[in-house]
Specification:
CATH class: Alpha Beta
Mean pLDDT: 86
Number of strands: 9
CATH architecture: Roll
Low-confidence stretches: 1-16
Order of helices and strands: EEEHHEEHEEEE
Oligomer: single chain
Number of domains: 1
Largest sheet: 7 strands, mixed
Length: 142
């Protein structure tokens, strides 16, 4: 029997706390693990802390907006400028992680982003971590 503060996931038989991000993690956790790096990035995004946000990305960061096979943004300078002018200037900006899957060096987040439009936008972000920083990101929108 589960306690009132825990719920049973019928698919996996695992317990989780309601309100906590459901996470499937197939790698060990540590401060340098991909999931920890991506979480630091999300936390910095929600604080609109550009230096901390950029510290989680490689100099050669490439951001893709699927289905395009060409990067929408390439390089840390262009990436930083985009987030400085197009995202972190928005006072209501916030990302909520609805679900997270971690497979090796990939972190896949189902996100709800508020502050970009009148209504929140849902997206899937796939982060690829290499050398302790995020090297590539693919965004999928409905």
């Amino acid at each position: 029997m589960t306690s009132p503060s825990k719920a049973l996931d019928r698919r996996s038989g695992l317990q989780h706390n309601p309100g906590q991000i459901p996470e499937i993690n197939l790698v060990a956790n540590s401060e340098s693990a991909p999931v920890a790096i991506v979480q630091r990035q999300v936390d910095a995004y929600n604080r609109r802390d550009l230096p901390a946000f950029l510290a989680t990305y490689s100099d050669g960061i490439r951001l893709y907006r699927m289905p395009s096979s060409e990067p929408a943004i390439a390089g840390k300078a262009a990436f930083g400028e985009f987030y400085r002018t197009q995202r972190f200037s928005l006072p209501a900006l916030r990302a909520e992680i609805l679900q997270r899957i971690v497979i090796g060096n990939k972190v896949i987040d189902h996100e709800r982003i508020s502050g970009l439009a009148e209504q929140p936008i849902e997206a899937v972000a796939v982060y690829e971590v290499s050398g302790g920083v995020i090297d590539r990101v693919w965004f999928f929108y409905p």
